[in-house]
Amino acid sequence: MEIKNAIFLDRDGTLNKGIVKENEEKFKLRPPHTLEELHIFQDISYLKNFHGRYHLFIVTNQPDIKKGFQTMEFNQFINSSILKEANITKIYSCFCLETDTGCDCYKPAPGMIFNAVTEYNIDIDNSYFIGDTWRDIGLSKNVNLKSVLIDRGHYKKMESDFLERGLTPDYKITSFLELGNIIK
């Protein structure tokens, strides 16, 4: 049986702990840059419950590599650490900067989703996006995916980002363990 449904997942702040950016005007999270900062959330093992019914895709912005704050090797180490815990079909990464012209992949732009839909014949109507920031929920809305906000303890600090853009997730959870009530 061909799987046509998908669960798209943000990475940093959703699957692994996001690190608070210091000296920022607004609250922002960044990916871990060192092994000491890396923490994979244990509840991602729950995603295995969707194996065989949903493709799992990671869709992630990774501008820190281009900025020189993180190496490609460490980025791959984070990915491989996550792959040990969840049955991920494919990882789609955007290494562009938010300001790069001609980029169609930096979330909330839909390029990475469109690539997965084309490559795997995904049915958007029966698919979900799970993330922790306005960019994730904005991307969901841009492509008509059902959106799930996962609050890992930082939503209140980022709530104004959602309000400024008029973004409301379809569902809100604090753990992947709550997905059984949403995704059948």
Question: What do these coordinates show?
Answer:
There is one protein chain. The protein is α/β, with parallel strands linked by helices and 184 residues long. The protein is built from 5 helices and 8 strands, in the order ββββααβαβαβαβ. The protein has one domain (6-181): HAD superfamily/HAD-like (Rossmann fold, 3-Layer(aba) Sandwich). Helix content is 25%, strand content 17%. A 6-stranded parallel beta sheet has the order 5-4-1-6-7-8, covered by helices on one side. A two-stranded antiparallel sheet has the order 2-3. The radius of gyration is 15 Å and the shape is globular.
Uncertain segments are none
User: Could you state the oligomeric state of the chains shown?
Assistant: single chain
Order of helices and strands: EEEEHHEHEHEHE
Distance between the termini: 17 Å
As a whole number of angstroms, the C-alpha radius of gyration is 15 Å
> How large is the count of helical segments?
5
Strands of the biggest beta sheet: in what spatial order?
5-4-1-6-7-8
Please state the overall shape, judged from the principal axes of the Cα atoms.
globular
Percent of sequence in beta strands: 15-25%
The biggest beta sheet reads: 6 strands, parallel
Integer tally of domains: 1
CATH class wording: Alpha Beta
CATH fold descriptor? Rossmann fold
Number of strands: 8
- Helicity, as a percent range: 25-40%
CATH architecture: 3-Layer(aba) Sandwich
Name the CATH superfamily assignment.
HAD superfamily/HAD-like
